[in-house]
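so im writing up the methods section and need the Bacterial extracellular solute-binding protein record in one place, dumping it here so i stop losing it
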Amino acid sequence: MNDVEAGEILGTVRGTPPNSEVRAAVAADLDGVDKILFDFEESMADVMSPAPSSPPPGWGSLKRTFTRIYDSINFGDLTIEEGAEQVMNEAEQLLS
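--- predicted struct ---
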């Protein structure tokens, strides 16, 4: 999340915001366990890895396609070769 206003509304409902601007805006209003966790994460910043990047556009559709074709192979509706070809063709369409 990159929107400060949304971050202020959500607070730490989804964990500590990874965006530094949003994190700074949220930090001012924290107390109790949220403050303890926030302070801990801040103290570990030097040893923690950065938040993972977002999946590429079309990833959700590609994942569903892969699962559907995988199931078709497992149930004997497609051969491995047919499934592989179908995955590649559909992936090309989804990601282009």
